[in-house]
Write a structure and sequence with these properties.
By secondary structure, this protein is α/β, with parallel strands linked by helices. The protein has helices at 10-23, 43-46, 51-75, 89-100, 114-120, 123-130; strands at 2-5, 31-37, 80-86, 104-108, 135-138. It has one domain (2-138): HUPs (Rossmann fold, 3-Layer(aba) Sandwich), CATH 3.40.50.620. The longest helix is centred in the middle third of the chain and has 25 residues, at 51-75. The chain is globular, with a radius of gyration of 17 Å.
Length: 153
Amino acid sequence: MRTIAVDGSECSDRAVEELIKRAKSTDRLDVHLLNVQARIFPEEAMVYLDTAKIDTYYYEQGNKALAAAERRLKSSGIAYSAHRTTGAVAENIIAKARELRADEILMGTHGHSKIASMLLGSVATKVLHLSDVPVTLVRAGQQVDFSGRLQAT
């Protein structure tokens, strides 16, 4: 069973493409797409906001993030289940993978440099540290090359 964490980005699309490549070499593949929406409303504001509207907002954002991956899997003839949740992203990916008894977690990386990842934190890094199962990270597309722009004058 494979759990694919998707956020609607080009990076997560590449992870889905990797899964589609793998599917061609196996008879049966149990796929679970997962989108985790980080909470953006502070708890203090929750007192004044309609919880149904907040839940609807997160559900719609999850739908948007899952849409491209769902289209790709459908067009490839790969059956899947989609899951949406909210909260701490890495922790929720791990919790859902454990709940589903996943054999592997597949996810894209945004390709930050090592320094940027240290400063910004990385969901992928947290998932790697917390996971009990193998995690496959699919690199982002071609890196931007700034070397021609940095010249001494």
